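pasting input
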Amino acid sequence: MSYINTLLQKTFKRRIGKNVGTLVAIALGVSLMVGVQITITSFSTTAIDFFVEAIGENDIIISGLGFPITDYESIIEQIDNSTIDYAAINVRVTQDVAAYNLESGILEKGVSFTGIELNEDPVFGKFYDEDGTEINRLQLMNIFENESHVLVGYSLKDELNITVGSDIKIRIGEFDGFKFNYITHDLKVAGFVGNEGKGKDYGGWAIWTSIGNIRSLIGFAQNECTEINIALSSNHKENPIENEYAMQIEDELKILLDAENTGLLIIAFRALLLDVADEVISGVLIAFNLFGALIIFSGILLLVNIQLIQVEDRIQQLGILRAIGSRRREIVRLFLVESIILGVIGSFLGVGGGYVMSIFLVNRIGKTFFDNSIGLQPIVTGGAVIYSIILGLILSVGAGILPAIRAARVDVIEVIRGIKKATRKRSGNFTMGLGLAFVMSGIAIFAAQMVVYDSLFTPSGWDSAVEQWMFMGGSVGLLIGVSLLLGYIISKKVMGNGIGLSFIGTAVLMLIFSLPQLKDAVENSKILATLAVVLALGSIIWVGVNLKTVTNFIRGVMYKTKLKKGVSLISSKYMTSKTMRSTLTFGIFALVLTMNIFAAIYQSTYSYNTLESVEFLSGGASIFLELDTPISNETLVDVEQDLYALDESITNVKGINSTIAFIQVDPEASDIHIPAEIFPTYVHMIYDDTFKDGDEYVYDFMFDLSIPFFFDDYKPAAPEEYQSQYSHNIWDFFYNRTKFSSDGTSIDNENGLLTVISTSPMLSPGNRFNLTGLFTNPTEVIVIATVRQYPFSQARGLPALLVTPDFLGKLSYNFALFPKHTRFLISTSEDFREGKNTEIATKIEEFFNSNTSVLVQNEDFVAASAYNVWDVMLELVDFQVRTFDFLQYFVGFGLIVGALGMIIIAVRNVSERRREIGMMRAIGYKKRQIIGSIMIELLILAFLGLIIGFLNSVVLGLSFAIVYDWILIIPATRVLLYTGIMIGIAIVASILPGIRASQITPAEAIRYVG
Amino acid sequence: MEDEIILKTENLHKIYAEGTSMEVHALRGVNIEIKKGEMVAFMGPSGCGKTTLLNLLGGIDKPTKGRIFINGQDIKELLDTEMTEFRLHNIGYIFQLFNLFEFLSALENTVLPLLLTDTTRLEAEEEAKMLLRQMGLGDKIYHLPNELSGGEQQRVAVSRALLMNPSIILGDEPTGDLDQETSSDIMNLFVSINENYKQTFLVVTHSEHIAQFCHRTIRIIDGEIVESGKEGS
């Protein structure tokens, strides 16, 4: 045995250069896996931290929904006497106000005016000034000694353009038992709160005072507050609280405080926020995962490729070892030890490389998503590192040892002399058995899930990711089984083709036909990520199986060029002789291109379709206006008339009454994914003349664009005119009929529930839930359709519903009490995309908010925001574009690392072929012909990768286009750019080893034995 | 055999790893003259410089000192590209380990040199097929090297060396990997070609048996010619 150890040491030393190459390639492969995981983890953790930092250690909020909670001390006493164990508790009085800088005439609505107890537990945050110095309790007492002195958050300070000593005016709605009366108060800025402690994030937009001052200002009694906050842990980083535990406490508190009857809103706020954060980032995460999966896949190909080269290089040595008496297990051990050494070192180096890669990516994440690159560090989880090292090790050892085991079994003479002996034909029983097993498992999956039955005989179809995964698994299993059986009966090639086409066929068919059945974007993306990998895998297998046919064709084409035929012959034949390696190399090209081109196609398609559809979807309301106060309460202005007078371009103005109500769902029975059982929603009351003037649609919004199966006769691919007409039918159906059966529609409303139209993906047609107003019993409603128009859907993350006047009786209190979202739809005669509408929007804001406003002069101001829909969409799209820019950056790393890997593979590939290159030189191949033959090889693989990568990207892009009803845009310039880059990489990766190869002295090369 | 000198060397030296502790003086002032159509065997113990000399004569390695003339052309003066072109048209190589491309069929291995010229593929393949048939490999032209016996592989290598109709054929232990019977077959093939086509054969060998097939034997010891041999010796 000792000679094996000696041999191992000597071989390792002799091949040190090659081993370094292998190490680097393994490290690069593992880098991709680690880098992707660290980046994704860092993104989600940072995003969640970003959300959570805003609420400090606060877990649960008990809120009176803006109303005073009376006798809060007894509530705290009840909690103290219960089994609920908390770390800290506080009470606050908070009012949503509009703030106005008297000097500059700048107005900001939605400002939180908060009064705190000066001895509030520091767990809920301390006050810091703008220099980061803590403001202690004594200083606070001094500041708030004067009732009108306040501290202002740093963001609000900038927005209102105020300094210490500035006078500001706030407007608070005071409740008189029936409605809010809006009263203004004068305040003086005593100081500012910096971006730390209480001032962080939300606190930056707040005006702070003491609880005593605010009570006095708005007329609250000493035993009244608006919210009670509970921290279950004083340090969530060290002692985290599970979401489920927080929700359990929420339930206990609801029972303890009899929330149903007292009207208290009790929410596990932190857990809810984490859920919302999860929801928000899941979309981006899915894109990351989709591309990450492809990047990791290319890393795996890289790793397996290099190990194959490592073993194949030494087949002859194996023969010699066997000839001198080495046992098979000794040879396997030799390779095992070598593979483990290379695998372990390479994997650890890969973790380092992945970390470096993630530093760049995470920095970019900061700039793209959080506008804050400073201090953003990659978050390395032990699990990700261990997983990557183990995966890297398994792959590198597996890829190194499996061919070695196979090689150790071959005949000694065969290996040494390169003569093929007649081999015993394999019975193929194993293939047949495996085929049958696959067929059976495919059938079993289908039978278990009833997916075929569901798809054909139930209206819901395959509407969940699990069903589609099952279908995918079943069909792939069945098809692979059939392929294996065909392989047994006909040939291996048929088998390979069958397997490759099974993957491709399943992916393509699912992308086109079944994906649109998924209503949920998150579910869609899960399937898409899987299908992207399945498609890529299938196309790589398929091309690999047919590589010989393809290269024969390409050789035929090359024979017709000026290229010397000897060069074409050698390159193409060598490539086919190393099918596995060539396939892996081609696979890397295909994957890298799939990622890059798909990212480009998706970005362009998204931008084009979003922007193209804005005008159509705006329904003619190119501007909309949002007020914090229902203007109908005002006597000074008649908005509609005054706005017409404001600018002659304004052609239509229509006010919409809005309020806030609550959605109630039973989480056990409902499939509605809202963050809490009781969740606020905006409700917009639509009258018959809101959109229409007689039979004419003044504001022509589109309903149900995303629900192609609403009516049986719906044609999803029909032109816009048809869609418009269809939308009108839906509107009439909604407005004039609330009672209908399942005839003619997939939605069953035999009980005649009140209908609503949803503007949020959280609430889909067919969903039922209770809508609750104040002092009213919950009313069960059903969503009949969705609307995607911006004036309704933009609602600070909250869902919004359109309702008919049928609801007036049920929600009249809400309209009286929470009239904070009154909107106006405004149309103009200006070009939708020109800047003139922005000027008009500014004029409208000035009309309400400026010093010259009649409202302001009468100290009865209304905070108004006017939006040019086109500008808003540009901003939204800009964020998406930046997101995709990051994705390009993300996949760009895949491209760079892939390129480095390709160069190493190409260099190693050439170094294994020294002998052949020597032979070529001896025969009469010129140096440039040697370079040419090496380059052609890689260029052909790159070219194949290019075609497959492009086709895969188009198929994936097309599937997105189908799902979202988009026009597919293929950005020619960018596709050409990536094509150029890939060809450039192939040229660089082949020219360097090509030049090196051409410089090999033929006499030495011929003697080379690996 | 004609009197015309086809190959001549003058004071040929080859030093490997010159100036290092590993320095090896492989050839020390070799002077030889080979006539057109002559069959010459180079003999000597292992490491005496036989293969080095053959590599220098074939232009796949460069001498440290001295000159080599082939058909009156000093090949040391040729640029790499010119030398490669020269080698393609004038020199055929046969190696001990056959050195066939394992991924190319017998036909493809044979036809390679002609595919580096302007000859069309079909013409080149026709010529190669004809040659392979002459070599007795008519029924194995599409076989891969590992599907051929050692003798058959060497005949493919010979075909490849002959395809361009070179004036000089160099054989580095061309039968070293074959049994005596097959070796004799191969050497008889060389003799027959030599007689029919008047090509010059330079063969490196350890075997007196193989040397007997040649017109003369040049013996080398420690990089020096110790016996130039006489015609017919």
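fyi The helical segments of chain B are 50-57, 80-90, 106-115, 121-134, 150-163, 180-197, 208-211.
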